[in-house]
Amino acid sequence: MSAKLNAKEVIGKVLEEKGKINQVYWIACGGSLIDLYPAHCMINAESETIESGWYNAKEFLLTTPKKLGKNSLAIVCSHSGNTPETVEAAFAAKKAGAAVITLTDREGSKCDSDEFISWVYPWGSDVPLSEVPSGITTALVAELLLAQEGFGKYDVIMESIDKMNGIVKAAIEKVNKEMGEAFADVCEKHKFFYILGSGSTFSQTYGFAICSLMEMQWQHCSYIHSGEYFHGPFEVTENGVFYFLQMGSGKCRPMDERALKFLEQYTDSYMVLDAREYGMDAIDPEVSDYFDPMLFYAMNCELRAARGKRFDHDVDYRRYMGVVEY
To answer: Are residues 126 and 20 in the same domain?
Structure first.
């Protein structure tokens, strides 16, 4: 079962067993899958020797990659530890010969098993970001790249993980003061709207839509990649159609800036959450793409709470999830 772990020791154990990792597969569902996306992006952008795949757990089971094997690492996340398809995917990856790291909040759950390298993380508003999946997975990638091929950005990555707690704390106060009520106003006025973002941040663009708003607030909305916006979706842009733009701080920012320029010209209804204005200018832009999602997740939580308060809709209330058979 689980023990107190750190990323360096975990990667050391994996490499001692496997010798070399050629593929990393990130496997989860819903919010847990969203948390894994930045680390997936980091491998594909930074590694010379490792390829990364990001899978909904059921899709991983139905379309299992042929490369999955003895030189693969599967990182599997289930917050409850008992998501059926996620647990099944973890066992399938192990059966194929891969090293398997499971991440869960639930000690004693099916993911917290001696079958895997099981990492049980704490959860709550006061938990350091280094101890939750977004921070854990970033550290795991940094340690893997350092150990296997050398990684010149290792120090700045690890320093940035530590910086993010202060950045997020200040940003929470700022977003509630500047945007909370305005966002609740938008939700009262618009029964449907669009959310834009790019790069690693797109995970939280997607997450804000499907988890924070559709699941937790029953708010109709849709997510659009800021780059893909200009390859079809921008045709519906007009006055009265609301857009919420998550503007990243790193290398993918030009896509968001292009989208903003267009919105400024062709709609009177938009709101911008600019990571640089919420503290991310303190993170090296060479790596800030991988950390913007930590910021945006925290901001999304505050904005959904503002909407929930306005509509008297508790974020924990469900009508289908865990209530009916599906």
So the answer is: yes
Number of domains in the chain: 2
Please tell me whether the overall predicted TM-score, pTM, comes out greater than 0.85 for this model.
yes
121 and 206 belong to one structural domain: no
pLDDT of residue 1 exceeding 70, the answer is no
Residue 324, in any domain of the structure = no
Q: SS3 sequence, the chain?
A: CCCCCCHHHHHHHHHHHHCCCCEEEEEECHHHHHHHHHHHHHHHHHCCCCEEEEEEHHHHHHCCCCCCCCCEEEEEECCCCCCHHHHHHHHHHHHCCCEEEEEECCCCCCCCCCCCEEEECCCCCCCCHHHCHHHHHHHHHHHHHHHHHCCCCHHHHHHHHHHHHHHHHHHHHHHHHHCHHHHHHHHHHCCEEEEEECHHHHHHHHHHHHHHHHHHHCCEEEEEECCHHHHCHHHHCCCCCCEEEEECCCCCHHHHHHHHHHHHHHCCCEEEEEHHHHCHHHCCCCCHHHCHHHHHHHHHHHHHHHHHHHHCCCCCCCCCCCCCCC
